[in-house]
Amino acid sequence: MDKINLLDTIAVITILISLFLSLFLLTVKTEHKLSNRLFTLFLILTAIDISGNLDYLFEIPLNGRIFLSSIFFLQLPTFYLYILSVCYADFKLKPKHLIHLLPFLIANLILLPRFYTVDLAAKVSFLENVSGMLEIKVNHILMHIQIVLYLIAAFMILRKAKKIYLENYAGASIESLTWLVQFTVALSVFYFIALLKNIFKFSTYPHISEGLKIGLFLFELIIIFWYLYKALNHPNLFRNINSKLKLVQQIVSEEKNKGQLAADEKVYDEELWKLKKYMLEEKPFLNASLTIQDISVAIGIPVRDLSILINHKLEQHFYDFVNAYRIERAMDLLKDATKSKVTVLEILYEVGFNSKSSFNTAFKKHTGSTPTSYRKGL
């Protein structure tokens, strides 16, 4: 066996890390079992895809090698389903999701006549001229169309989930959604580089393709390490939202179509007074997991009406509405001379935040300064 080169070394390390993270996700105690299982499947599919570069180390029939290379067509559908499971608490796998197998099946059916069903000599001839074979070119086009469509779909789901979260929740999951967007962006960059690699692969500059291939393996290793770091430090990273919740924009549109959004200032003022009275007297914002449903039940205003009141009438996300009360409470504590020994970290937990970064962001947005600077300036 030849000495293992840099590409092989990176591939082996990436596979081992992927399998280790898969084991962790399957065994860690969490409520989000489906999400963990879907990402585990994504990692295993990624490891299988990478192992295709090590096929010379194993005795794998030619049909098996080509079939394993088509596993790529299952990666992004799995990642898309993972995004859905992370964003929506009531997400379940259903028979309709089998449609995501279609690109994988098409890719293999294309290869059926001139590769899978022919003799060994014909298979070898096919592989010797692989870059010029129509089936391979079609599969590469299909691959890149799939990449674009699934990444767009993932970003659309994340964008909607973030809006719904801001309108209905006041916890720290917005950071988790932001991180998931960042992770999806990283994958998008990875697949864009892969696209460039494939373009050069079928050009007169195949050496550039090989260089990009090494860069891709390194990038993939970094992405997996990044996710591993997050998973180990935050095993319950995400808090799902209810998929039945609607965006306020949609609710308002429905109300207008029904002619039910006529301005009633008296009702509006009464509901707003009731809401503010409850926030000041009962201080529900001290609950880090507060939702708009919690307040709706407490003050007797339907969620739909309360959502329109805060997100539409006040022109403020529920997330920001609640955080404003938290910041006001934090400012009082920071100004209190008897609390001078209480740390900023203790204060942020006391007022309903459960993340230092989200507290600092909200505080600076509300006051123009950081909590530490605010305290020192008193």
Task: Give an overview in words.
By secondary structure, the chain is mostly helical. The protein starts with 5 loop residues before the first helix and ends with a helix. It has 17 helices and no strands. The chain is 72% helix and 0% strand. The mean pLDDT is 84. Helix 8 runs antiparallel to helix 9 (206-233). It folds into 2 domains: 6-233, Rhodopsin 7-helix transmembrane proteins (Rhopdopsin 7-helix transmembrane proteins), CATH 1.20.1070; 248-376, Arc Repressor Mutant, subunit A (Orthogonal Bundle), CATH 1.10.10.60.
Task: Describe the protein's topology.
Blueprint: H1 6-27, H2 33-51, H3 62-69, H4 72-87, H5 102-116, H6 120-128, H7 134-168, H8 173-201, H9 206-233, H10 248-258, H11 265-282, H12 292-299, H13 303-313, H14 318-335, H15 344-350, H16 356-367, H17 371-376
* Main sheet properties: none
CATH-defined topology of the largest domain: Rhopdopsin 7-helix transmembrane proteins
CATH architecture of the largest domain: Up-down Bundle
Number of domains: 2
Question: What best-fitting shape do the alpha-carbon axes yield?
Answer: elongated
Fourth-tier CATH superfamily name of the largest domain: Rhodopsin 7-helix transmembrane proteins
User: Approximately how much helix is present in the residues?
Assistant: over 70%
Number of discrete helical segments: 17
Unreliable stretches covering 5 or more consecutive residues: none
Share of residues in strands: under 5%
Count of DSSP E strands? 0
Radius of gyration: 26 Å
Mean pLDDT figure: 84
**H/E series:** HHHHHHHHHHHHHHHHH
Summing up helix and strand content along with how strands pair, one would put the structural category as mainly alpha
CATH class of the largest domain: Mainly Alpha
Tell me the distance between the termini: 71 Å
